[in-house]
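Researcher: We're teaching a course module on how sequence relates to structure. For the next exercise, students receive a sequence and then see the predicted structure as C-alpha coordinates, so they can try to spot secondary structure elements on their own. Here is the exercise chain.
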Amino acid sequence: MQTSPSSFQTLSEILSQPEAWQDALDELARQQGALRAFYAQHQPDHLIFLGCGSPYFLARAGASLARGLTGILSEAHPGSDMWLFTDQTLIVGRSTVMVVISRSGETTEVLKAIETFNAQGGKAIAAVTCYDESTLARTIPLTLLAKAGQEIGLAQTRSFTSMLILTQGLIYAFANRELSPRFLQLPQLGRALIEKYVDFAQQFGSTLNQRFERVFFLGGGALYGLACEAMLKMKEMSLSLSEAYQTMEFRHGPMSMVNEQTLIVALVSETATTAETQVLTEMRQRGATVLAVTPVTLPEAAADEQIVLPEGLTDAERGPLYLPILHLAIYHHTVAKGLNPDLPNNLTAVIELNDDHTNKAQLS
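Model: And here is the predicted structure for the students to work with:
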Protein backbone atom coordinates (compact mmCIF):
# COMPACT_ATOMS: atom_id res chain seq x y z
CA MET A 1 0.00 0.00 0.00
CA GLN A 2 1.45 3.37 -1.03
CA THR A 3 1.98 5.89 1.76
CA SER A 4 0.00 9.12 1.51
CA PRO A 5 2.20 12.26 1.23
CA SER A 6 0.16 13.87 4.02
CA SER A 7 1.02 11.11 6.48
CA PHE A 8 4.56 12.33 7.16
CA GLN A 9 5.38 14.57 10.10
CA THR A 10 7.76 16.67 8.03
CA LEU A 11 4.88 18.07 5.98
CA SER A 12 3.05 19.43 9.03
CA GLU A 13 6.31 20.91 10.29
CA ILE A 14 6.89 22.70 6.99
CA LEU A 15 3.34 24.03 6.87
CA SER A 16 3.41 25.20 10.49
CA GLN A 17 6.42 27.46 10.05
CA PRO A 18 4.42 30.71 10.32
CA GLU A 19 3.14 29.71 13.77
CA ALA A 20 6.66 28.85 14.86
CA TRP A 21 7.84 32.24 13.56
CA GLN A 22 5.33 34.01 15.78
CA ASP A 23 6.71 32.14 18.77
CA ALA A 24 10.23 33.25 17.79
CA LEU A 25 9.13 36.87 17.48
CA ASP A 26 7.51 36.68 20.91
CA GLU A 27 10.80 35.35 22.29
CA LEU A 28 12.65 38.27 20.73
CA ALA A 29 10.25 40.74 22.32
CA ARG A 30 10.90 39.15 25.72
CA GLN A 31 14.67 39.16 25.27
CA GLN A 32 15.27 42.59 23.73
CA GLY A 33 16.45 44.15 26.97
CA ALA A 34 18.76 41.24 27.74
CA LEU A 35 20.27 41.28 24.23
CA ARG A 36 21.04 45.00 24.34
CA ALA A 37 22.46 44.76 27.86
CA PHE A 38 24.64 41.80 26.80
CA TYR A 39 26.08 43.77 23.89
CA ALA A 40 26.63 46.90 25.99
CA GLN A 41 28.42 44.87 28.64
CA HIS A 42 30.81 43.01 26.33
CA GLN A 43 31.35 45.54 23.49
CA PRO A 44 32.69 42.96 21.00
CA ASP A 45 34.99 43.87 18.13
CA HIS A 46 34.74 40.36 16.67
CA LEU A 47 31.69 38.12 16.24
CA ILE A 48 31.81 34.40 15.54
CA PHE A 49 28.62 32.61 14.46
CA LEU A 50 29.00 28.90 15.03
CA GLY A 51 26.98 25.78 14.27
CA CYS A 52 27.09 22.32 12.70
CA GLY A 53 25.13 21.05 9.73
CA SER A 54 22.10 23.24 9.01
CA PRO A 55 22.97 25.67 11.85
CA TYR A 56 26.39 26.19 10.25
CA PHE A 57 24.68 27.38 7.09
CA LEU A 58 22.48 29.59 9.28
CA ALA A 59 25.71 30.90 10.85
CA ARG A 60 26.97 31.74 7.35
CA ALA A 61 23.90 33.87 6.75
CA GLY A 62 24.16 35.42 10.22
CA ALA A 63 27.78 36.45 9.81
CA SER A 64 27.02 38.16 6.50
CA LEU A 65 24.08 40.03 8.02
CA ALA A 66 26.10 41.03 11.08
CA ARG A 67 28.95 42.47 9.01
CA GLY A 68 26.47 44.60 7.11
CA LEU A 69 24.35 45.74 10.05
CA THR A 70 26.92 46.15 12.85
CA GLY A 71 30.12 46.94 10.97
CA ILE A 72 31.91 44.44 13.23
CA LEU A 73 34.27 41.78 11.91
CA SER A 74 31.96 38.77 11.73
CA GLU A 75 32.76 35.21 10.72
CA ALA A 76 31.04 31.85 10.56
CA HIS A 77 32.69 28.59 11.57
CA PRO A 78 31.59 24.99 12.08
CA GLY A 79 31.89 23.85 15.67
CA SER A 80 34.76 21.53 14.83
CA ASP A 81 36.96 24.46 13.72
CA MET A 82 36.74 26.18 17.10
CA TRP A 83 37.37 22.87 18.83
CA LEU A 84 40.09 21.34 16.62
CA PHE A 85 41.58 24.32 14.73
CA THR A 86 41.38 26.99 17.40
CA ASP A 87 44.43 28.93 16.23
CA GLN A 88 42.81 29.35 12.81
CA THR A 89 39.46 30.40 14.26
CA LEU A 90 39.87 32.53 17.39
CA ILE A 91 41.87 35.76 16.99
CA VAL A 92 44.12 36.43 19.96
CA GLY A 93 43.69 39.91 21.43
CA ARG A 94 40.18 40.45 20.10
CA SER A 95 37.11 40.98 22.24
CA THR A 96 35.26 38.07 20.67
CA VAL A 97 31.63 37.18 21.26
CA MET A 98 30.43 33.84 19.92
CA VAL A 99 26.84 33.16 18.84
CA VAL A 100 26.22 29.42 19.03
CA ILE A 101 23.32 27.98 17.00
CA SER A 102 22.13 24.40 17.53
CA ARG A 103 18.67 22.88 17.13
CA SER A 104 19.23 20.19 19.76
CA GLY A 105 21.70 22.00 21.99
CA GLU A 106 23.49 18.67 22.43
CA THR A 107 25.83 18.45 19.43
CA THR A 108 29.26 17.31 20.59
CA GLU A 109 31.28 19.67 18.38
CA VAL A 110 29.23 22.62 19.63
CA LEU A 111 29.76 21.75 23.28
CA LYS A 112 33.47 21.12 22.69
CA ALA A 113 33.70 24.48 20.88
CA ILE A 114 32.20 26.24 23.90
CA GLU A 115 34.73 24.62 26.22
CA THR A 116 37.59 25.62 23.91
CA PHE A 117 36.34 29.17 23.43
CA ASN A 118 36.09 29.73 27.16
CA ALA A 119 39.48 28.13 27.85
CA GLN A 120 41.21 30.25 25.19
CA GLY A 121 39.94 33.61 26.40
CA GLY A 122 36.78 34.18 24.41
CA LYS A 123 34.76 37.11 25.77
CA ALA A 124 31.18 35.82 25.99
CA ILE A 125 28.63 33.52 24.35
CA ALA A 126 25.02 33.87 23.30
CA ALA A 127 23.03 30.86 22.12
CA VAL A 128 20.10 30.01 19.86
CA THR A 129 18.38 26.63 20.21
CA CYS A 130 15.00 24.93 20.27
CA TYR A 131 15.24 23.03 23.55
CA ASP A 132 15.23 24.74 26.94
CA GLU A 133 16.40 21.62 28.80
CA SER A 134 19.40 21.08 26.53
CA THR A 135 22.99 21.29 27.71
CA LEU A 136 23.46 24.41 25.58
CA ALA A 137 20.49 26.24 27.10
CA ARG A 138 21.50 25.24 30.63
CA THR A 139 25.12 26.30 30.01
CA ILE A 140 24.67 29.69 28.33
CA PRO A 141 22.75 32.31 30.37
CA LEU A 142 21.69 34.33 27.31
CA THR A 143 19.85 31.74 25.23
CA LEU A 144 17.14 32.51 22.68
CA LEU A 145 14.62 29.68 22.48
CA ALA A 146 12.66 28.65 19.39
CA LYS A 147 10.51 26.18 21.31
CA ALA A 148 7.80 26.04 18.64
CA GLY A 149 10.51 25.11 16.16
CA GLN A 150 11.01 21.71 17.77
CA GLU A 151 10.58 18.85 15.30
CA ILE A 152 9.96 15.13 15.06
CA GLY A 153 11.22 14.95 11.47
CA LEU A 154 15.01 14.78 11.27
CA ALA A 155 15.55 17.30 8.46
CA GLN A 156 15.49 20.82 9.85
CA THR A 157 12.70 22.96 8.40
CA ARG A 158 10.69 25.03 10.89
CA SER A 159 13.56 24.83 13.40
CA PHE A 160 15.91 26.42 10.86
CA THR A 161 13.67 29.32 9.88
CA SER A 162 12.65 29.94 13.51
CA MET A 163 16.27 30.06 14.62
CA LEU A 164 17.02 32.30 11.64
CA ILE A 165 14.47 34.81 12.92
CA LEU A 166 16.04 34.70 16.39
CA THR A 167 19.50 35.21 14.88
CA GLN A 168 18.25 38.16 12.83
CA GLY A 169 16.71 39.69 15.94
CA LEU A 170 19.93 39.21 17.89
CA ILE A 171 21.92 40.96 15.16
CA TYR A 172 19.46 43.85 15.04
CA ALA A 173 19.76 44.25 18.82
CA PHE A 174 23.56 44.21 18.58
CA ALA A 175 23.31 46.88 15.87
CA ASN A 176 20.99 48.94 18.12
CA ARG A 177 18.27 48.82 15.47
CA GLU A 178 14.57 48.17 15.84
CA LEU A 179 12.86 45.35 14.00
CA SER A 180 10.62 46.85 11.36
CA PRO A 181 6.82 46.54 11.53
CA ARG A 182 6.96 44.56 8.28
CA PHE A 183 9.44 42.08 9.79
CA LEU A 184 7.02 41.56 12.67
CA GLN A 185 4.43 40.51 10.07
CA LEU A 186 6.51 37.56 8.87
CA PRO A 187 4.04 34.97 10.21
CA GLN A 188 1.16 36.46 8.23
CA LEU A 189 3.35 36.93 5.15
CA GLY A 190 4.60 33.36 5.39
CA ARG A 191 1.12 31.93 5.72
CA ALA A 192 -0.08 33.85 2.64
CA LEU A 193 3.00 32.75 0.67
CA ILE A 194 2.43 29.09 1.51
CA GLU A 195 -1.25 29.30 0.57
CA LYS A 196 -0.37 30.93 -2.74
CA TYR A 197 2.29 28.41 -3.80
CA VAL A 198 1.38 25.16 -2.02
CA ASP A 199 -0.13 23.57 -5.13
CA PHE A 200 2.74 24.74 -7.31
CA ALA A 201 5.26 23.21 -4.88
CA GLN A 202 3.50 19.84 -4.99
CA GLN A 203 3.27 19.78 -8.77
CA PHE A 204 6.82 21.03 -9.35
CA GLY A 205 8.41 18.83 -6.70
CA SER A 206 6.58 15.67 -7.76
CA THR A 207 8.02 15.84 -11.29
CA LEU A 208 11.65 16.74 -10.49
CA ASN A 209 12.89 13.17 -10.71
CA GLN A 210 11.61 12.75 -14.25
CA ARG A 211 12.99 16.06 -15.51
CA PHE A 212 16.39 16.73 -13.98
CA GLU A 213 19.68 14.94 -13.31
CA ARG A 214 21.27 17.66 -11.17
CA VAL A 215 20.20 20.66 -9.13
CA PHE A 216 22.17 23.80 -8.29
CA PHE A 217 21.11 26.26 -5.58
CA LEU A 218 22.42 29.81 -6.00
CA GLY A 219 22.45 32.82 -3.68
CA GLY A 220 24.66 35.82 -2.96
CA GLY A 221 25.57 37.55 0.29
CA ALA A 222 23.59 36.21 3.23
CA LEU A 223 21.46 34.21 0.79
CA TYR A 224 24.39 31.94 0.02
CA GLY A 225 23.98 30.36 3.46
CA LEU A 226 20.28 29.81 2.74
CA ALA A 227 21.08 28.35 -0.68
CA CYS A 228 23.43 25.90 1.06
CA GLU A 229 20.67 24.98 3.48
CA ALA A 230 18.19 24.33 0.64
CA MET A 231 20.84 22.19 -1.04
CA LEU A 232 21.30 20.22 2.16
CA LYS A 233 17.56 19.57 2.40
CA MET A 234 17.59 18.24 -1.15
CA LYS A 235 20.42 15.85 -0.29
CA GLU A 236 19.11 14.77 3.10
CA MET A 237 15.49 14.14 2.25
CA SER A 238 15.49 13.10 -1.40
CA LEU A 239 19.04 11.69 -1.74
CA SER A 240 19.42 13.80 -4.90
CA LEU A 241 22.68 15.20 -6.20
CA SER A 242 22.76 18.94 -5.58
CA GLU A 243 25.29 21.70 -5.05
CA ALA A 244 25.24 25.30 -3.84
CA TYR A 245 27.23 28.26 -5.12
CA GLN A 246 27.31 32.02 -4.82
CA THR A 247 25.32 33.26 -7.79
CA MET A 248 28.06 35.23 -9.50
CA GLU A 249 30.62 32.49 -8.85
CA PHE A 250 28.54 29.97 -10.76
CA ARG A 251 29.98 31.19 -14.06
CA HIS A 252 33.53 30.55 -12.81
CA GLY A 253 33.59 26.84 -13.58
CA PRO A 254 30.39 25.20 -12.26
CA MET A 255 28.35 26.29 -15.29
CA SER A 256 30.30 23.71 -17.30
CA MET A 257 27.82 21.19 -15.82
CA VAL A 258 24.75 22.97 -17.21
CA ASN A 259 22.64 21.16 -19.79
CA GLU A 260 18.97 20.43 -20.51
CA GLN A 261 18.75 18.14 -17.46
CA THR A 262 19.89 20.88 -15.05
CA LEU A 263 17.63 22.69 -12.57
CA ILE A 264 18.90 25.95 -11.09
CA VAL A 265 17.10 27.21 -7.99
CA ALA A 266 18.06 30.85 -7.51
CA LEU A 267 17.55 32.83 -4.30
CA VAL A 268 17.49 36.30 -5.84
CA SER A 269 18.38 39.39 -3.82
CA GLU A 270 17.00 42.88 -4.23
CA THR A 271 20.50 44.34 -3.90
CA ALA A 272 21.93 42.47 -6.89
CA THR A 273 18.85 41.69 -8.96
CA THR A 274 20.28 43.06 -12.21
CA ALA A 275 23.55 41.12 -12.04
CA GLU A 276 21.88 37.93 -10.83
CA THR A 277 19.23 38.16 -13.57
CA GLN A 278 22.01 38.20 -16.15
CA VAL A 279 23.44 34.96 -14.76
CA LEU A 280 20.06 33.24 -14.79
CA THR A 281 19.31 34.41 -18.33
CA GLU A 282 22.63 33.04 -19.51
CA MET A 283 22.05 29.68 -17.81
CA ARG A 284 18.63 29.35 -19.45
CA GLN A 285 20.27 30.04 -22.80
CA ARG A 286 22.64 27.16 -22.05
CA GLY A 287 19.69 24.80 -21.47
CA ALA A 288 19.01 24.97 -17.74
CA THR A 289 15.56 25.27 -16.21
CA VAL A 290 15.47 28.10 -13.66
CA LEU A 291 13.23 28.36 -10.60
CA ALA A 292 13.67 31.79 -9.02
CA VAL A 293 12.64 32.74 -5.49
CA THR A 294 12.69 36.48 -5.82
CA PRO A 295 11.54 39.74 -4.20
CA VAL A 296 10.79 41.23 -7.63
CA THR A 297 9.27 39.71 -10.75
CA LEU A 298 12.04 38.79 -13.18
CA PRO A 299 11.94 38.98 -17.00
CA GLU A 300 10.65 35.81 -18.63
CA ALA A 301 14.07 35.24 -20.18
CA ALA A 302 15.57 34.79 -16.69
CA ALA A 303 13.27 32.20 -15.13
CA ASP A 304 10.95 29.38 -16.15
CA GLU A 305 9.12 29.56 -12.81
CA GLN A 306 9.05 32.27 -10.14
CA ILE A 307 8.09 32.35 -6.49
CA VAL A 308 7.59 36.06 -5.88
CA LEU A 309 8.08 37.10 -2.26
CA PRO A 310 6.02 39.73 -0.43
CA GLU A 311 7.00 43.37 -0.82
CA GLY A 312 8.17 45.80 1.82
CA LEU A 313 11.09 43.88 3.34
CA THR A 314 14.83 44.41 2.97
CA ASP A 315 17.38 41.78 2.04
CA ALA A 316 18.36 41.66 5.72
CA GLU A 317 14.77 40.87 6.74
CA ARG A 318 13.16 38.54 4.20
CA GLY A 319 15.45 35.51 4.64
CA PRO A 320 12.91 33.14 6.29
CA LEU A 321 10.50 33.59 3.38
CA TYR A 322 12.86 32.02 0.84
CA LEU A 323 12.67 28.52 2.28
CA PRO A 324 9.11 27.21 2.97
CA ILE A 325 8.10 26.72 -0.68
CA LEU A 326 11.45 25.09 -1.43
CA HIS A 327 10.92 22.85 1.60
CA LEU A 328 7.54 21.83 0.18
CA ALA A 329 8.91 21.14 -3.30
CA ILE A 330 11.76 19.04 -1.88
CA TYR A 331 9.31 17.21 0.36
CA HIS A 332 7.08 16.24 -2.58
CA HIS A 333 10.14 15.29 -4.62
CA THR A 334 11.18 12.97 -1.78
CA VAL A 335 7.76 11.34 -1.53
CA ALA A 336 7.58 10.91 -5.31
CA LYS A 337 10.84 8.95 -5.13
CA GLY A 338 9.28 6.60 -2.60
CA LEU A 339 11.46 7.82 0.27
CA ASN A 340 10.51 8.70 3.84
CA PRO A 341 11.20 12.43 4.44
CA ASP A 342 10.89 11.95 8.20
CA LEU A 343 13.82 9.51 8.30
CA PRO A 344 16.68 10.57 6.00
CA ASN A 345 19.14 7.81 5.14
CA ASN A 346 21.90 7.19 7.73
CA LEU A 347 20.81 10.08 9.96
CA THR A 348 19.48 10.55 13.47
CA ALA A 349 18.61 13.65 15.43
CA VAL A 350 21.81 14.57 17.33
CA ILE A 351 25.50 14.32 16.49
CA GLU A 352 27.37 12.78 19.37
CA LEU A 353 31.03 11.82 19.17
CA ASN A 354 32.58 9.10 21.26
CA ASP A 355 35.71 9.77 23.26
CA ASP A 356 37.81 8.43 20.39
CA HIS A 357 36.14 11.04 18.13
CA THR A 358 34.39 8.44 15.97
CA ASN A 359 31.27 9.83 14.37
CA LYS A 360 27.91 8.10 14.70
CA ALA A 361 26.89 9.75 11.39
CA GLN A 362 24.04 11.78 12.79
CA LEU A 363 22.38 15.15 12.27
CA SER A 364 23.14 18.26 14.36
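Model: If you want an answer key for the exercise: Residues 17-42 form the longest helix (26 residues). The chain is about 45% helix and 15% strand.
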